[in-house]
Amino acid sequence: MIGYLPDTNIFIRAAKGYSPESELLSKLIKKKQIKISSIVAGEFLSKATSQEEKAFEKLLNEFIILSVNLDAARIAAKYRKMSLKTKKVHLLDCFLAAQAKLNKLTLITHNKSDFPMTDVQVITP
Question: How many domains does the chain have?
């Protein structure tokens, strides 16, 4: 099964009705092809309106939520160490990439430059 891990910016833009994010996310939700990172959940909910929060909570109850575990932490640490030599990548982005790698998911984001990892497939809508 093909699977996708949307970054927070994808959910934010889709919640505001922006194209192509809203159409892409709607399509992937209907096909049950997304998983949601607990990191993304925290980021989204921290800035969500009450209406956005209600809609997002429905998604959280419907889809698999990826937690941060020790395997993800080890991979994220490796990514972070590598990034310190070139472009500093935020640790939360390293965790998100690690979750995508461990679960063989394609990461969807508007910030491809935040994910320079070569072993993770990253696409923009």
Answer: 1
**CATH (domain of 119):** 3.40.50.1010
Q: Which residues contact 106 (CB under 8 A, 6 or more apart)?
A: 2, 3, 4, 5, 100, 121, 122, 123
Q: What angle do CA 21, 39, 118 make, to 5 degrees?
A: 75
Question: What number of CA atoms fall less than 13 Å from residue 70's CA on the CB side?
Answer: 0
Do the Cβ atoms of 98 and 75 come closer than 8 Å? yes
pLDDT tens, position by position, 74-111: 999 999 998 887 778 999 999 999 999 999 999 999 99
* CB burial readout 77-89, b (16+ within 10 A) else e: eebbeebeeeeeb
Q: What predicted TM-score, i.e. pTM, was given to this entire model?
A: 0.94
pLDDT of 85: 78
Q: What is the pLDDT of residue 83?
A: 86
Beta strand residue intervals within the chain, DSSP E: 4-6, 36-37, 65-66, 106-108, 122-123
Token pair 């109850």 in the structure block, residue: 61
- pLDDT for 1 equals 65
Task: Give the structural domain span for 60.
Answer: 4-123
